[in-house]
Amino acid sequence: MSDPLPKVILRLIRQIIFWPLEALLVFILFGTARILPVAIASACMGLVMSLLGPLTPWHKRARRNLVYAMPHLSYAEQSRILRGMWMNLGRVIGEYPHINKLVDKGYVEFIGQEHIRDVETGGFLISAHMSNWELGPFAARSVGKKVAAIYRPLNNPFLAGLLARRQRTFGGEMFPKGREAALGMISAIRKKQFMCLLIDQKLREGMAVPFFGHPANTPIGHIKVAIKKKVPIFYVQMVRISGCHFRLAISPAINLPDHDDDANVLDAATAINKTIEDWIIQHPEQWFWPHRRWTKDV
Question: Could you tell me which residues are beta bridge partners of residue 274?
Answer without folding.
Answer: none
